[in-house]
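Re: export button greyed out
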Amino acid sequence: MNNLLNKAGSKVLLMGNEAIARGFIEAGGGFAAAYPGTPSTEIVETLAEVAPLLGIHVEWSVNEKVALESAYGASISNVRALAAMKHVGLNVAADALASISYTGVRAGLVVISAEDPSMWSSQNEQDNRYYGMLTYTPVLDPSDPQEAKDLTKTAFELSEKLSHPILMVPTTRVSHTRSNVILDKVTPPKAKGNFAKENSRFGLVPANSRNLRDKLINKWNIIKDSFEKFEPYNRIENEEKDKIAIISSGSSYQYVKEVNEEVGNYRLIKISTPYPLPRKFILKGLEDVEKILVVEELEPIVENQLKNIVNEEGLSIKIEGKSYVGYSGEMTLERARKAVREFLGLSIEQPLTKKLDIKLPERPPSFCPGCPHRATFYSLKRAVNSLMLKPIYSGDIGCYSLGINSPYDEQDIILEMGGSIGIANGLAHVSENQVPIAIIGDSTFYHAGIPGLINAIYNKSPILVLVLDNRTTGMTGEQPDPSSGLTAVGEETKVIDIAKVAEGVGVEKIIVFDPFNIKESTNMLKEALSYVVKEKKPAVAIAKKACALNAVRIANKIHIEIPIYQVLENKCTACGICYNAFACPAIFVKEDKKAWIEPSLCTGCGVCAETCPYDAIKPVKIIDKRWDSVWQ
Amino acid sequence: MAMNSKLNIVISGVGGQGIVTLARIIGEAAVNNDVKVLIAETHGLSQRGGSVEVHVRLGNVYAPLVPKGGADILLSMELIESARNVDYLNKDGMVISSDTILRPPIPGVKLPKKEEIIKEFEKNNIKYYLIPTKELAEKIGSYQSENMILLGALYKFSQISKFINIDSIKESIKTMRNPEINIKAFELGNSL
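Workaround output, generated via the alternate export path:
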């Protein structure tokens, strides 16, 4: 159900990210690049579906830095370009962003950083509006899917007019909210352009940079002015009301709007340009106002600018914000209501909520049935235990982060993309008797793991780097990566062999194993670990097996029956290894403590049969000869 | 639809049960009825068998999330997840839930009994409809259609019919992969 190419004027249901993709198409964008990351993934995923039809270039880049650099390359060749990433991805791309504002752009360049307040799927909730301040990049903050679409189109026009990059920061509740969106007309895409040389502008050697820095300061005044008239994205509602006002930015506006209707419609200043905050527009909104509440998520970006403006103008207006709204987590109606009512001096009634007097089990996310990571963690623990090592599991960002949970407990540190190897490097050089094991997925390895590995070789760090190669970016929904042999638009491409990368950078001990073969995996991991301990050098172990979701999808597509496994009642001794230590969610415990496999959940990986010491788990039927091939 | 009326639905269940699809079908139907709709999904780790929550708001609404104590309907594909989310219900809110209980994959997990949960609903004066979605799906030979059976039950037992007409729901179901069986499932749920 793809509404993305419906005709102008039609009303469709679009997710915020799809709306951004549509905005790009309406702007005639010709180049889009991203690294997947929640909540940003669907922007480029959706564009990849329609790219062949539109004749535009859409790619999954290996990381956000490359995505932004690529988009910049297209823009300075006069093709409108978009780079999308999640908020922490912008840390990776920040090096490029900080200098792009010096050179400026040619065709529109829009950088989307999807923010994740409340950290639904992230390691932190940094407020990337600060990047706008840091890098002299204007920041747009849409409040709903319709505005996300319209602002994307406007952002391209503005970026081009100002020859300057624009940063847009939709949050989870815009990116992942579906709502009614009215479409505008599509501009035929321009996907080809030539780069006209202009060294004094695009070659950032110090002499040029000093010049450009001064120009940037002057240009910033023009940029600021361009947001003074920015309707309907910035607007004043209930302008006839005086004395009290509320100002809100981005999706917070939608919460405040609803609360404001409840409390009596005070003057409401809606902002979609949190940085730079347009001074004249704001001053107009502040006319006859005695006190104002700023409602925004995370950091006081609008609040501090507002305080600065009021201070410089010598106005006596009381400004409140974070002291009522708080810092952590996303906006909710409860939170907006409490802040607004407290600010207005109104009583706050807590709604009576129902609560059942019953203990409910938690339902945390877990590795899927058939996930090769489960098997790898199982073997790794056996290898470490049998060598009696003291391991430090230096983890990384991906599905395997779930290895932090019991019964695996094999992710001691998780910091950022690719961090596992660099951190292991530090651990290795100071530890006296612990063995650092860096655990990283294929997509994360290509993203930021390779420099860490080169560093480990160069600096002679005794670590084991375990790459969990499931041939996809699993966590964000199985986007292809350099291990998949497919591009974003489904074209075949070269598979970048991780073992060869390791060999190429000088790793002397490399093992590649099939994690579904527990015995062999355990032995090979023991061998690699022993090498690290004895030789005091890095080793690389690669677990190679497809993501179970992809394997099952392929099997269904080519009509291979999934072999279901069963527990032989007479052989099962109720030892619990399969359900307690291996812990596949398809294996249940019966009242007599014997195991039972739920046929609707089993994906036929057969690893439980390997873990069973009593040979009590067998396939129900003879397995299709082609079965193994879907896991390659 | 009255100008100021709104309907708040929280949909809960377990990753993989077709909750996002269920919400999207409601959303498409709302758009076809020219009714404002907001559907807020929490993605991320939830597809790995974890608890899933989707908020659906219809009518005169702006904010994407339903507040605690603010839902008219808690629609659930799984009974433990219904019990987990009753704090979303408003004073008169109702539960429309599948009677299925799915065991979370935690070693040694203790499951509540269906009767215990029902007793608690009654103790808290929560109006509830338990739908044997799995049984009914088996009856029509489509395990994948439990969500459409639940949608049928939602249409039958809640005020959603004041916002969305039945034809536009069916139109929106027709865009799914197996339209005939899913329409059948919806009608079965709507005839309970």
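Chain B has one domain: 6-103+112-191. The button fix ships in the next patch.
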